[in-house]
Design a protein that fits this description.
- The chain is α/β, with parallel strands linked by helices.
- Helix content is about 35%, strand content about 20%.
- It contains 17 helices and 20 strands.
């Protein structure tokens, strides 16, 4: 058993609020999910709020909870404007109020006489924190031995500038006793979720406000990613892209795993450099991954094998990692376009415009021409439009022609209008001469382009339909069994509609 317990107790909920009242509300919410809670006293906006909060905690000390008091000074990356003595005083009062643990940053301990934290009236157990918000700090194998007897556990939190950085920190946690490993930043997010599996004593998740880059919420960590339940038998999948924070692929796939009671997880990987990702992939035990912007075409040269359709399209959105570690690629975007558009339009002999020439546009163009449609390609770069038109058996349609030409359907395969840039449209109202408009963007569900089309009484098809179709095909390819389509669809639509309600509320 680790220093903080086992199972869900190793998920540490982070309460960071400006007022004592809000902090009390968040503690109650946190304890419904985990008995381990970090109290960020430095986030309380004043000394009077800290006094008020600790007085509340003395009166309402939760039984069987493991409370960690943190009052990080600005020098250590926190919000407390006071001195080392101020920090120690607040931590001592937190111990009196019921906190078993306190978090002391190494900058504070080094200022104590002979580094002796045990001489102060602090909570009984001490977690020593080594933070570096700019890079991954040196991972000294002798770190734990150096502080043994003075502290009870060590936390190393470093900014992961590469995926390899975060994998290195996980290896350090696996060989270090009583160690908490925290890869920071969006690049480090997958490793943060796998930290418990790799030997970290804790994984942090905010109840509401994120206190460090790359955090996922307490609800997501426990219920979507099930970080506390991941083990060596867990099948790990991913979605790679840049950007990746907008992707609902983890929600889609993890919902499927949960519904089918499958020991598997899908994680989001921010991939700026493909070689960095592929080199680190074995450290995560990846069994497969989906590919999104901007890697659908460039991934081809890193694959050992791919199906004939992907070779023809020149783009891959799904990768399977074979038992020997080789990478096999295929394309389910093709299926997604057909399933989404066939519900609204008889494709044979129809005229369809594809806007864009990237990986998704390529899959769409090939799918539509193979279905018997006459396809036009309109792209920002004429050379890319010509190349795709030649490969797919389509024609090039210059942008100026959109003011006068009409189509049975127009399909947007560009990222223009994608979250967070939701206020823009790739086409103007005067360029929308069609019966049906489909946008491959699914977040938001109703893009600005779809809204413009609806105003002109044009039938619309949301990118959610393609996203669901290609993702479900992907899930079935990895799992080799039928996907729980209803549960996956329900989860994605609920997330998109909740987001829309938040956006529209005052």
């Amino acid at each position: 058993m680790g220093p903080f317990g086992t199972g869900v107790a190793r998920i540490c909920a982070v309460v960071a609020e400006a007022s004592a009242r809000e902090a009390a509300v968040r503690i109650r919410r946190a304890l419904r999910e985990t008995p381990t809670v970090e109290l960020r006293l430095d986030w309380l906006k004043s000394d009077s709020e800290r006094r008020r909060f600790l007085a509340w905690l003395r009166r309402n000390r939760p039984s069987r909870a493991v409370l960690i008091a943190t009052c990080r000074r600005r020098e250590g990356g926190g919000l407390l404007a006071g001195s080392v003595d101020d920090e120690l005083r607040w931590l001592a009062q937190a111990g009196d109020a019921g906190c078993l643990w306190c978090d002391l940053e190494v900058e504070t301990v080094r200022k104590l006489p002979r580094n002796s934290s045990r001489k102060y009236s602090l909570p009984r157990r001490i977690l020593l924190s080594v933070h570096d918000f700019r890079r991954m700090p040196p991972l000294d194998p002798a770190l734990e031995a150096r502080w043994r007897g003075q502290v009870d556990a060590i936390k190393v939190a470093g900014a992961a500038r590469t995926i390899a950085d975060s994998a290195r920190l996980l290896r350090f946690a696996a060989r270090t006793r009583n160690c908490v490993a925290v890869p920071m930043g969006e690049v480090g997010l997958p490793a943060r979720l796998l930290a418990l599996r790799e030997g970290s004593a804790l994984a942090y998740a905010p109840v509401s406000v994120a206190t460090a880059p790359g955090q996922v919420s307490l609800q997501e960590m426990k219920h979507l990613y099930r970080a506390h339940a991941l083990n060596r038998q867990t099948q790990v999948y991913g979605v790679i892209g840049d950007p990746i924070a907008h992707s609902l692929s983890p929600l889609l796939h993890n919902t499927g795993f949960i519904a089918r009671r499958t020991n598997a997880v899908c994680l989001p990987f921010l991939v700026e450099n493909m070689r960095d990702f592929l080199k680190a992939a074995p450290d995560f035990g990846l069994r497969g991954f989906s590919v999104t912007l901007p890697h659908k075409q460039s991934i081809l040269r890193h694959l050992q094998d791919y199906d004939a359709l992907s070779a023809e399209i020149g783009a891959v959105n799904t990768v399977v990692v074979r038992r020997d570690g080789s990478l096999y690629g295929c394309n389910t975007d093709y299926v997604g376009v057909l399933r989404a558009l066939e519900k609204k339009l008889r494709l044979a002999k129809s005229r369809v415009l594809v806007l864009g020439a990237g990986g998704s546009a390529r899959a769409a163009a090939f799918a539509l021409t193979r279905a018997g449609a006459a396809v036009g390609i309109c792209a920002r770069r004429d050379s890319a439009a010509r190349e795709l038109a030649r490969a797919a058996g389509a024609e090039v349609v210059p942008r100026r022609a959109l003011r006068t030409e009409s189509f049975d359907a127009i399909l947007n395969a560009t990222p223009v209008g994608m979250h967070p840039g939701i206020a823009v449209s790739p086409l103007k109202p005067g360029e929308l001469h069609c019966r049906i408009l489909m946008d491959l963007i699914y977040r938001p569900e109703r893009t600005q382009l779809l809204k413009l089309a609806a105003q002109k009484h044009i039938a619309t098809v949301s990118g959610v339909e393609m996203f669901l179709a290609q993702g479900i095909a992907q899930w079935e390819l990895w799992m080799k069994r039928r996907a729980p389509e209803k549960a996956m669809r329900r989860a994605v639509l609920a997330a998109l509609r909740a987001e829309e309600r938040r956006r529209s509320s005052p």
